[in-house]
Amino acid sequence: MQQKSTNTVWHHATVTRDSREQLNEHKSVILWFTGLSGAGKSTLANAVEALLYESGKHTYVLDGDNVRQGLCGDLSFSEQDRVENIRRIGEVAKLFVDAGMLTLSAFISPFKADRLAVRNLVATDSFIEIYCRCDLSVCEERDVKGLYKKARAGEIAEFTGISSPYEEPEHAELVVDTDKKPLQECAQQVVDYLMEKGII
Description:
Layout: H1 17-24, E1 29-34, H2 41-54, E2 59-63, H3 64-67, H4 79-98, E3 102-106, H5 112-119, E4 127-133, H6 136-142, H7 147-152, E5 174-177, H8 183-196
Parallel strand pairs: 1-3, 1-4, 2-3, 4-5
Helix pairs in contact: 2-8, 4-5
């Protein structure tokens, strides 16, 4: 990205991320849920947030559809705009991490390069890629929004999994088989991982 803002200097806050983490009594990270449309990313992210919230953790879910209502409402679904969509979300998620939050981001984010770019925005241990693995046929059966039907009919161009590729994560920190396990088991798998790594 070409920096167009000039004469700006990063302001270091008086209250640091470390201070916020100490106050919250947990670390702050980005939990990046990626997968096909219908794989259960938002559903899982919200189920994980509910478990974390119940135990007193500070959380926020950044949802793909919600973000496109405002922050990214000016973007289409062209490849170029998808890249920009993820770039913006990465920057927002980075701010939330600095604020001491467990930040759950639920986006298809089909391209490896875009996910890597977000990973590189934060410290190595601050980004956890969670691949919501779900067979395309199951995603199409669910078709919660009726998008696959439209994509198959040629009404939606550049649709991930149909007319646009989804590049599966090769080194995700966590793979959750959302087509094989019940929701609560999937959510607990994520929470167990956070506990195992000493994040919560």
